[in-house]
Design a protein that fits this description.
Layout lengths: L1 E6 L1 H9 L4 E4 L10 E6 L5 E14 L1 H8 L7 H7 L6 E16 L15 E3 L2
Parallel strand pairs: 1-3
Antiparallel strand pairs: 1-6, 2-5, 3-4, 4-5
């Protein structure tokens, strides 16, 4: 099973060039059978551009999670702290094998009534 994530273009670029190996989330999908993330690059790109295998999902307190991921976070400590401010739990999705699409596609190509998710959306494999 795949999940669709909306990611800002600046972070998509870092994921694709390998400098960001973790995608951080305040909450994560409930299903255990998710193996891939499909990346929707938010505006101004507005396209589905790639997908990656999920190597693992790490749940922890924000400070502990930062210590585990900081070398390949692809974001600053200040940005991390601001994002998780007031949170007791944080999530990092470790990026595995990446497949960048030759042609970015409109989100409607993923199926009927598919729109960019606020957090995530399950997709049929």
């Amino acid at each position: 099973m795949k999940v669709l994530l909306s990611i800002k273009p600046e972070f998509v670029e870092k994921i694709l060039n390998g400098s960001k190996k973790y995608e951080f989330r305040k909450s994560v999908f409930k299903r255990q059978d998710i193996t891939k993330v499909v990346i929707y690059a938010t505006m101004p790109v507005g396209k589905v551009v790639a997908e990656f295998d999920i190597e693992k999902v790490i749940h922890d307190e924000p400070e502990k999670l930062w210590k585990k991921t900081r070398k390949h976070a692809g974001i600053s400590k200040d940005f991390f702290n601001e994002y998780f401010f007031g949170r007791e739990n944080a999530v990092a999705i470790k990026v595995g094998q990446i497949t960048e699409y030759e042609e970015p596609m409109c989100i409607t190509m993923l199926g009927e009534n598919i729109t960019p998710p606020q957090s995530y959306r399950y997709l049929a494999a």
